[in-house]
Amino acid sequence: MDLVIVESPAKAKTINKYLGQNYKVLASYGHVRDLPAKDGSVRPDNDFEMDWEVDKPAQKRLNEIAQAAKGADRLFLATDPDREGEAISWHVLEVLRQKRAIGQKPVSRVVFNAITKKAVLDAMANPREIDAPLVDAYLARRALDYLVGFTLSPVLWRKLPGARSAGRVQSVALRLVCDREAEIERFKAEEYWQVAVQLETPRGADFMARLTAFDGERLQRLSINNGERAGSIRAMLEGAAYRVTSVEAKPTKRNPGPPFTTSTLQQAASAKLGFSASRTMQVAQRLYEGLDLGGETVGLITYMRTDGVQMAPEAISEARTAIASSFGERYVPEKPRFYSAKAKNAQEAHEAIRPTSFARTPKDVERFLDRDQLRLYDLIWKRSIASQMASAEIERTTAEIEAAGGGKTAALRATGSVIKFDGFIGAYQEHRDDSAPAVQDGQEDDESERLPEIRAREDLAKRAVEASQHFTEPPPRYSEASLIKKMEELGIGRPSTYAATLQTLQDRDYIVQEKRKLLPEAKGRLVTAFLHNFFEKYVEYDFTAALEEQLDRISAGELAWKDVLREFWRDFSNQIDGTKELRVSEVLDALNEELGPLVFPSKGDGSDPRLCPRCNAGQLSLKLGKFGAFVGCSNYPECNYTRQLGTSLSADAAGDGAGSDEPRELGRDPSTGEAVTLRSGRFGPYIQRGDGKEAKRSSLPKGWVASEIDFEKAMQLLALPREVGVHPETGKPILAGLGRYGPFLQHDGAYANLETIEDVFTIGLNRAVTVIAEKKEKGGRGRGTPAAIATLGEHPDFGGPITVREGRFGPYVNVGKINATLPKTTDPASVTLEDAIRLLNERAEKTGKAPKPKAAAKTKTAAAKKAPADAKAPAKPRATKAAAGKTAAAKAKAPARSKTTVAG
C-alpha cells in the first residue's frame, strides 16, 4: 500500500476515493513544525542554525503518519502546490527521517492543481522530488520574519510603550495606510467650475456639450476657478449662436482581461461581492477542496494561491467550446488568447484561478452551493470564460461645436459611445478600481451615453446653460482590495500572505476598517512614525520589494539563501545596535516633529498650537505611558492637563472638543437644566449630563463622529434605554438600548442584537417582538448554553464534537469545556474544522486547561516519568499558513518541546 500525505482532512477523503484501496491518504492539518516563539530559535552567529518545534497536536498526527509510513511501500508528499506546501512536505519528510520511518522507501512529491479525478491521477503519474530551492526560499523568508520580529519588536516595546510588535511585511503595509492618511490630511481643496450647454438638433433631439475652450484659451479642469469668471462665460453662452464644426465616429475594440490571480480575485470579490480578503480565501478554499455534487465530491476551481495568469491548453479549448455553446460562434475569437503577468516579481508556475470544468456552469451547481460559494464560483467562471471571448466592439462619437457671440468665441465638445458588439462584456463587466478617485462631475464618461444624430455644419439651438461649482477631492483611503493591488504593484509580500497580513494589522489595533475603508489607528501612526525615523530603510517600499526579489531568486536557484541572510543581518543588526543608546526623549522629539501638524493642529488664530490650554504656560508634547501615547503638558505635575489619543489621530486632532479634556457644552436639558457636554475619556468621546458621580453618561456609537454630535443626538443617547412597548405574550416591557457590545433589545432578562444604532431609536413593537422571537429560536443570550449553529466534526486530540455557537460576546467554537471566540471578521457560517481546531488549541494553551487526549494512556510512559514538566505543559496551537505569515514576536511564548536543529 502507498501512503499519500495532504494538508486538509477534507481533501484527504476526496483524494482517497479517487486513488482507491491501494492508497492510504492522511492529513498533516497544515504546518507540523515551526520556530519556537522565544529568542535564539534562529542563530546568526552559528551560520543561521534554526531550531524547529513540533507542537503537541502535530506530534500525535506525525506519529500516526510515521506508523503508516513504516508499513507503506512508497510515500507521496501531496501538500498544496505553493511555497508553503513545499515547506510542509519538507518538514514532514525531515520528521519521518528522524523517526526512522522511511528507510529505503521511494519518496515523491506530487501537486494537485485541482481536486478532480483526472488532475489527481495525472499528478500521481508524474511525481518529482521536493523542490530544494523553493524550500531554501521558505527557510530564508521564515528566518527573516523571525529575526525582524524578535529583534525589532523589543526595541519598540522599550522605546514606544503600548506598541505591540513589528513585522517585515506588515510594517510596510501599515506605512502605505498611514502615508495615504497623511496625504489626505495635507490635501487642500481647490475650487473649480464646470460649464455645459444643453443643445438641440434641428430634428428635436437634445444632448449636453461641455466647454473646452473660451476666447482662444484651452480650458483645463481648474482653469475656471471662481464664480465671477464662470458667470461671465455663462452670460456669453446665453446669447451665443451654436454650430457643429465636425463629427467623428471612431470604431474601437476593448479586449478582455486575464483570468483571476489570488490578488485580482480578492479585489473583484471585494468590489462586486463585498467580501474581505480572508473571506474570499475561505470560500475559495472550499471550492478548491471539493463539494458534494449529488453524491460525488468534486473540486470546482483550480488552486487559489497563484499569481499566474495563464490557463492550461485543454482548459482554453474547453472554454472556447463553452463560449460557442453558451454565447454563440461569433463570441469565439479566431485564435486563443494568451496572457503574461504584469505584477512585479510574479511567479507563473501555476495556472490562473479557473473552473475545473467550463461545462459546469454556475446554474448547474447552484443547488449544491451556499450563497457565498455560488457567488464566488459565478465570478470565477464568468471572468475565466470572458478571458477567452471576442473583443467588444465600440463606436465612439465626438462632436466639436463652436459658439460665437458678443465678439467672443467658445469651443464645446459632446462625446458618447455605443456598443456595436458586446463580446466578452456579455459575460463579465470589469469592476471600477476603488483606489482611484471617482470620475469628476462633467468629465467624460463617454461609454455611459449615446449621442443623437448630429451632422457637421448644422446649426444647433440652445436649451440651457449650466455652470456648476466643484472642489477637488483628496485621494481615497485604501480598501482591502486597493491596498492588496498597491502591494502587488510595489512587489511587497506575496498573494498567499496578503489576507493574513491585513488581518494581523487589524488584530494588533494598528488599523481599523470602517465602511470598507482602512484607517490607521493612533497606535499604527506612532509605530510607523517611529520606524520611519529610526529604521527608515526597513519600511522603504523599494527595499522591501528588492528583498522579495532576492527571495524569488533563491526560489529559482539563482542565489544561496544564507548569503541573502548574511547581507541582511549585517546591516540590520548594526541598525539595532545604534538604537541601544536612544533615549525616549529623542523618540518623542522625533514623533512630535513628524506628527506635529496632526497632533497639534493650528488653532486658526495664529497662536502657538502647542501652548497648554489649561495653564497657558507649558508646551504640549506626546508622552508615553503604560497604555500607550497621550498628549500632556510640560509643566507636569504643576499642570496635569492630558489628552488621550483617540481611535484615530485625525479625529483626536479635529479641534472640536472631542480630543481635549475640556468639555464642550452642547446645550441644557430642558427638564433638569443641567449642561449636556461632549467629553473625551480613556475609551474615547462620550456624552455627559450634569456633573459628579451620578451624572448620566453615554459613549458614542460606532460610526458616530464627535465633530458631528449636536444637542439633539446627545439627548437621544441620554434617553436610552427607551421602552419600545409591552410584549403581547409576557406583558413585560421591551427596551432598546446601547451597550458595550453595540445596540440591543432587552426583554425578560434576555438580549437580542440590533443591526444599527438607528434601529434603537426607530424600531417598533411588532418588529421588536419578531427580532426577540428569532433570537430565541437561534439560541440567544439567555441562561444556559446557547444552541449550536453548526457541528463541524470531532476534535482529533481532545475528543468530542466541535460546535459553532452564538454567545453573549459574539460567535464562538466549543469542544467540551473549551470555548474560543471567533475573530471579528470571521463569518460563523464559514468556519472550517481546521480553523476551529486551531482556535481551540490556542485557547487551551492560553488557559492551561487542555482536556486529556481521548486516547490517553491510563499509565504514565517511561518518557513521561522522565519529563513530568513536559507532560504538564499546555498544548501549543498548531501552526497554520496564516500563522506562519505573522512575525514570531506576535506569538505567545510556548514551552520547549522536541527540537531539531537545522544547519541548512
Q: Which characteristics define this entry?
A:
single chain; 904 residues; alpha+beta; Rossmann fold; Topoisomerase I, domain 3; Topoisomerase I, domain 4
What does this structure look like?
The protein is an alpha+beta fold and 904 residues long. Among the domains are: 129 residues, 3-Layer(aba) Sandwich (Rossmann fold); 144 residues, Topoisomerase I, domain 3 (Distorted Sandwich), CATH 2.70.20.10; 128 residues, Topoisomerase I, domain 4. It is 34% helix and 22% strand. It has 26 helices and 34 strands. It has a 6-stranded antiparallel β-barrel. A 4-stranded parallel beta sheet has the order 2-1-6-7, with helices on both faces.
The biggest sheet amounts to: 6 strands, antiparallel, barrel
The CATH architecture term of the domain at 191-255 and 393-471 is Distorted Sandwich
What is the overall shape? Answer: globular
Give the number of helices.
26
What do we call the CATH topology of the domain at 191-255 and 393-471? Topoisomerase I, domain 3
Kindly report the average pLDDT value: 83
Low-confidence stretches: 437-447, 646-661, 780-784, 854-904
> Could you give me the name of the CATH homologous superfamily of the domain at 191-255 and 393-471?
Topoisomerase I, domain 3
CATH class membership of the domain at 191-255 and 393-471: Mainly Beta
Radius of gyration using CA atoms only: 32 Å
Portion in strands = 15-25%
Structural class: alpha+beta
- Residue share in helix: 25-40%
How are the strands of the biggest sheet laid out side by side?
Answer: 8-9-15-14-11-16
Distance between the termini: 33 Å
* Number of DSSP strand runs: 34
